[in-house]
Specification:
Elements lengths: L16 H7 L1 H16 L1 E2 L9 H7 L28 H17 L5 E3 L5 H12 L5 E5 L15 H5 L1 E5 L9 H11 L3 E5 L9 H10 L3 E5 L4 H5 L12 E5 L10 E5 L4 H12 L5 H13 L3 H23 L3 E2 L8 E5 L7 H10 L2 E2 L1 E2 L14 E5 L1 H5 L4 H29 L1
Parallel strand pairs: 1-11, 3-4, 3-5, 5-6, 6-7
Antiparallel strand pairs: 2-8, 7-8, 9-10, 10-13, 12-13
Helix pairs in contact: 1-2, 3-11, 4-11, 5-10, 7-8, 12-15
The chain binds pyridoxal-5'-phosphate.
Amino acid sequence: MFNKEGKDNSTYNVDNFEFIKKTSPIVGGLIEKEYNRQKNNVELIASENYCSEAVLAACGSCLSWKYAEGYPYVREMGNKGRYYGGTEFVDELEEYCVQQWKKVFNTDYHVNVQPHSGSQANFAGYKAILEPGDTILSLSLDNGGHLTHGSPVNFSGKLYDMHFYDVDERGFIDMEDVRKKAHELHPKLIMTGASAYSRIIDFKAFSEIAKEVDAYFMVDMAHIAGLIAAGVHPSPFGYADIITTTTHKTLRGPRGGLIFAKPELAKKVDSAVFPYAQGGPLEHIIAGKAVAAEEAQKPEFKEYQKKVVENCAALADEFLKLGYKIVTGGTDNHVFLLDLKGYAFSGKELQARCDENGITLNKNAVPGDPRSPMQTSGVRIGTAPMTTRGFGPEDFREVARRIDVIIKELIKEKEEEAKEEK
Ligand SMILES: Cc1ncc(COP(=O)(O)O)c(C=O)c1O
């Protein structure tokens, strides 16, 4: 694990590039370069984090070699539902993983720990309750939703009849618009969750609207799952029919997905994951998910999540003090969008300039963005990874001041370019 000064305090040899180089100098060399980039840069990508060495070790273990298509739990026919022999230990592991995630979210929802990613969790979640052509009401990509929430270039936009609720002029999800469109469209599913939304999502209000129009209600909590587990964001459990998440963002686990479902949807969800969407589960990643779930039950994890939110508030506050605009005017969670509409440079240009200065963030569309999604008029900034590395509010304020210097340089350059063109 890297500390905030960029030193590696690992006890486990997570970055065994010298060993890999003996077989492949190219691959080992590239991993080494990436290791140094990660160690030396300030990481502000809101969807990333650093998992523990124990999680990483579990993911790199012999479980990587084991096939175990099917499920470990006893099924209706009375067998274990696996299609391979030799699964006694991975059966136990997978069951253990399921039980740990129930504890993390204090829930009796059914849990499927097999999705290889957040996108596959959403794919299977939809499949469990929808037919192709069914109507979904969701938050669009340009207002903060994810690709899998109905983008026309994604399976969701191609398979389903997608409609979107709006954000208001400040950038908050417009619950009146959700209700109005739900009553007009009578969707089979109302979906919420986001990749770039900085405010509390009112799951109770969404579930009430879903009940009014007899729709399923699904939540993709990928970004805020760690905050929910720690009680620093309201929980969708008890309100949503299906809840999906990734495990690698604020949850600080390995890359992967999870699906939680009301017990009556358990069988449909399971068969939507396997055999519909996936083959063999990645038991090594499931081991990493189980370790992460245990870590997420520790008091330190709650403290960490509180710090993520406090740090994000400090970072946003510093940008506001420096005179910048933030979508919704601030943040309640781990992320916010710097609104660069009206500036002569794009989000893409700022992202590239930050890269050159050792700060990693990503361009992101902002509501009402006049630029294309490849250019954008915003950048997305998150505090989860650097909080893991020990950054506090003052460190984040300093980051805002560094980005301010970069922006001022860009403004100056653009002004000079404009003068030369005259
Ligand atoms: C809200 C949300 N859902 C799903 C995903 C997809 O996760 P994955 O990249 O694991 O497919 C993301 C990824 O960033 C996300 O932000």
